[in-house]
Amino acid sequence: MDSVSSRRSFFHFYVSLTGLFALFCFLSFAFISTFLQEISKGNKENKIYFLPLLGIALLIAAFYLLIRYHKNTPKIIITEKSIQVNRRFYKLSYIKDVTYTGRQKFEDMLPHYKEAAKITFTNGDVVFIYDELYENSSELKMYLDALLNPEKTVLSRPTSTKINIEGEHFYNYKKPLLFSLTGATFVLFSGFFLCMFIVFIVLHQHIASCFFLLILLIIYYFMSAQLYYFSINEKYLVVRNHVIFRKKIIYTLNDIKEIVLVPIENRAPNALRVITNNYKNKRYYAATLYDSDWQKLRDHLEKEGVNVRNELYF
């Protein structure tokens, strides 16, 4: 492999940014057009003059968001001798320090933190590789790590659902579904819409039944993503889901570089992020676990020799 070039994430970069930009622009034009309509009707109340100000502010915010996202995700090309960041070139020997995992500041409309690698150069320049914003962030990290540490051998098997764990004894970190707000909400809403679906099927109201089935599937898709739980023994970490019963993701502990206990963000519950030795990572939300469960989970993982980064601050 002579070089690796970064690829921005289709969903987390292009889809998300396009959606936010379109929303801000739509609201901006809605406020400005409402103001113009009120003026044409002869309405000269003071309160309507806030509308164009809000519209202009939202339009500025939309373009600021666009600029910041592009600035935070430059084109990165790593070769055997250099790193190109947009139009800037750095020799590998100019790298002062590399942190491959960790929460790094992301400059946005409201500064926050994302999982990223941090490359610091001898001249003080800093480059971030944000995991979720690059499609191949793990590949970039692996290649850079191999160039800077040629003596290091990284062996990491992919996660699997086919590893035979029959006969293995696990300790489960889970709580009954109804013991959490998310779980209880899922049961109540899915039960209601399932009943409505069945009722309209019996009444031969196919359009209405399809509508309730669609709502049921949307609820199932989004809420099931917050209902993971974990099983651990001295060899494996197994990730299961309360409502997708057959889903089972198996990690061997030797293949895990780091476990991150991720706090609540964007109204999502606490989560467990698994980072493997090849820098691939996946986040699993676990709404049914209490703080005491997270503490026991952390202690258990550390006892088995797994590196745990605790961001829950207990």
Commentary on this structure:
The chain is α+β, with helices and mostly antiparallel strands. The protein folds into two domains: 1-153, no CATH class; 155-314, Pleckstrin-homology domain (PH domain)/Phosphotyrosine-binding domain (PTB) (PH-domain like). The protein is 38% helix and 25% strand. It has six helices and 16 strands. It has helices at residues 10-40, 50-72, 137-148, 181-202, 206-224, 291-303, and strands at residues 3-5, 76-79, 82-85, 88-91, 95-99, 103-106, 112-121, 126-130, 171-173, 228-232, 236-241, 248-252, 256-262, 271-276, 281-285, 308-310. The strands form four sheets. The chain has a four-stranded antiparallel beta sheet, covered by helices on one side. Helix 4 runs antiparallel to helix 5 (206-224). The longest helix has 31 residues, at 10-40. The protein is flat, with a radius of gyration of 24 Å. The mean pLDDT is 89.
What's the SSE blueprint?
Elements lengths: L2 E3 L4 H31 L9 H23 L3 E4 L2 E4 L2 E4 L3 E5 L3 E4 L5 E10 L4 E5 L6 H12 L22 E3 L7 H22 L3 H19 L3 E5 L3 E6 L6 E5 L3 E7 L8 E6 L4 E5 L5 H13 L4 E3 L4
Parallel strand pairs: 13-16
Antiparallel strand pairs: 1-2, 2-3, 3-4, 5-7, 6-7, 7-8, 9-10, 10-11, 11-12, 13-14, 14-15
Helix pairs in contact: 1-2, 4-5
Keywords: Membrane, Transmembrane, Transmembrane helix
Protein name: PH domain-containing protein
